[in-house]
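hey so u asked for the seq, here:
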Amino acid sequence: MPSIHPFSCYFVEPAWAPEVVTPSYDAFSPEERAAFIRDNPGNYLSVIRSLDEFTGPDKISLDELLKLNTANLKALLASGKFAYCERPCLYLYRLISGEHEQTGLVCEIPVDEYEGGQSIKVHEQTRQDKEDQLLAYLDRVGASSSPVCCTYRHQAELDYLMQSFKENNSPLLDFKTRDRVRHTVWRIGQAETIERFVSLFAAVPVGYLTDGHHRAAAALRYARQQREKFPGNYSGAEAFNSLLVAFFPDDQLKILPYNRCVKDLNGLTPSDFLQSLEEHFQVKKLDKGPATQCLPDRPRRFTCLLRDQWYDLRLRPEVDIPDDPVQSLDVSLLHNLVLEPLLGIKEARTDHRISYISGISGQKGMESACRQGFEAAFACFGTSVEELIAVAEAGQVMPPKSTWFEPKARSGLFLRFRN
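ran it, structure tokens below
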């Protein structure tokens, strides 16, 4: 397991947390993010704006974007909504969404321990262009506030220590964001308690990156870039040599599916497409009422929304399931049995005919996509944590958009300068 350590940071003032802490970044479209920032200029989303929020006559360059983000960060700090905590501390971060609850430890790890998959294993392939933009952000804006999230196989002693600390200490923050997720943060500043957490985490064999692959990759590149400026003249304790991480135990994570929608049927009529599905699936038309649940309720079951009609797709018993941690995933079966052979989508990462709908959007999100012009949408059952770990252990990567973790750690709680 990576060697965790406490860190100094700017921390959002409790009175300002509901205004400053961001909603879930990925739950917004670029247009929705831009509108949210116009209505909520004091939210930390104004510091992490992206190029896709600026279109048409409002289009700007990357250089202009970085200047804007830097100015917004300076304004946020000048407003007094963050206070600096010089004492290095660890933090417990609990998220509650509906009946789901998870608590993780927020700390720093040496960024080098992300490299090579020895201490932190990955399951996702990164894109060069996204890494490049995040690297430019770190270089110009020089700050980060979004913890990379990891999981680990839960340990009874760690569970007990976290629970005991929460029960015996008052939280630093306890508030709800606009999406009704409750966020509670405890600061761990006592040396003996910090040492206890460090010791227990040192006994955990390995961590698994769940969210933030691009941020982690960009942070490693930024550290290397900074070291090249001062060859042999750095200690390893510099901020750029560390990565902000939230570790959540595996038995507390909730993974929702990432559903797919396509713009056309690759020249097939709806009738021909449904007939083609029969080779591998038992296809059943669903009679949808006001409260009908049309999403899969178990693995190996899929559903399809074709224009305005839902269909249940049950994998036929004779279909061979590959003995491979990636190829046996439901998202892989959907791609290999439907998206590629029937719809001609070979590269799901880059094909402009396919798009993705977050699991948090659910059935309504799929129906909205089809109303907006997509020809069909497909739902899978969510990937499990065990499947994610199996892929990471095998040193493989999942298909793009295989997991949606909910609830997500947010930006605007902890603020660190990287240089």
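The chain has a mean pLDDT of 93. The first helix runs from residue 17 to 20.
lmk if thats what u needed
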